[in-house]
What we know:
The chain is of the alpha+beta class. The protein folds into 3 domains: 1-36, no CATH class; 55-65 and 295-460, CATH 3.90.1700.10; 70-285, CATH 3.90.1710.10. The protein is 36% helix and 20% strand. A 4-stranded antiparallel beta sheet has the order 7-6-3-8. A 4-stranded antiparallel beta sheet has the order 11-10-9-13. A 3-stranded antiparallel beta sheet has the order 12-17-16. Helix 1 (18-26) links the parallel strand 1 and strand 2 (32-34). Helix 4 crosses helix 5, helix 4 (105-118) crosses helix 6 and helix 8 (239-256) runs antiparallel to helix 9. The protein starts with 12 loop residues before the first strand and ends with a helix. The model has no long low-confidence stretch (mean pLDDT 92).
Amino acid sequence: xxxPLFGVPLKPVNLGLATFAxxxxxxxxxxxxxxxxxxxxxxxDLTHTRSGIDIDAANAExxxxxxxxxxxxxxxxxxxxxxxxxxxRLLCHAGPPIAWEQMCGPMRGAIVGAALYEGWASTPAEAxxxxxxGEIDFAPCHHYHAVGPMAGIISPSMPIFVVRNETxxxxxxxxxxxxxxxVLRYGAYGPEIITRLKWMEKExxxxxxxxxxxxxxxxLRALIAQALHMGDEGHNRNRAGTSxxxxxxxxxxxxxxxxxxxxxxxxxxxxxxxxxFLNLSMPAAKAMLEPAHGIPGSSVVTVMARNGxxxxxxxxxxxxxxxxxxxxxxxGLFFPGYSQADANPDIGDSAITETAxxxxxxxxxxxxxxxxxxxxxxxxLQATREMYEITVGEHAAFTVPILxxxxxxxxxxxxxxxxxxxxxxxxxxxxxxxxxxGQVGAGLLTAPMGCFTLAFAALREM
Length: 462
């Protein structure tokens, strides 16, 4: 116990390193722990742009647009026929722009698989040669109002979901989710992967499209909000979201499709794939964020994305520039037979969920996922609480029961990240660093500070 000093018990206050506070607690001292970090190099108070724009006012408008967005699932289509500007030799990928030569193993593996799926090559070797030849155009999904989990590949023949932001009218797109493990988005490309993708194109897609004609638009914001109250965080755990979607689709499938065997195959596929809803929560997030992009003076992040080599972000008031730093490596739990040595650096567009105020930002409400990615419920609670320090507000539609239904933190402010040193938390899957193997685990990490210091420097020049 602390001894009196001048007749008054000591009340130590610890700034910064949590281990110092814990050592005092271990000795029975009641310590006040303050989470403080020095500002990043180059930080200076920034309230207005050089042209006089009030940054806080611009950020308030960005927050209003994000939180007032209402994303609806309105239909499906084939990428080359549905996504504006898509063409017959384009492959979209996750993360910021990258050339074949710089791509990581799982990204290359997914591109090889896409080339085989499209019939552009008959062997993996032919596909790799084609990819390196310059005959295929590569572009970020985000350049086409789209998002893709992990490698994020969208090829011309792939079916895609169409999500419309009812409030602002903009559209967002995403492929169907294949499931976990050895799948294309994790860099696998064996015959069984191509067979599954062809079934998804020829049977799953037309069946779901006909069911959606029966249901009409599905309110994804409402489903995400409900799923957050059922233990999902909308990124690495989508069991509740997938179940809620299945409840809506099931009667429509029965009404729309006469062949009971097809209905059974589709229902079993979705039921066996807890991540099916991820490919709807992601475009829902994209649809909510895009109206907040392009607000003069705003320091709110509208994109966080990773390609397995680089981590990139875009900022509302800084146009379509990417601010890029090396991708970090997730730390978490691995499937039997794999370890941290097998992990590829962080990959995927799925951090769009954190950018929109759920995913890792809502992990306090998903204790089951905390254990799955190697953490504890207390860690999850602290992670969400930290995110309030770097965001401009809360989301009225997305709330966290354990925090007395407080709105999730939303609107990452570049200035606050650089000032506090607190980095956005992301929970994610882990791909094997070699092409062709697939998923090997799941984990947690933070966005790299380098992206934010570059963006902050650009904000100071606005």
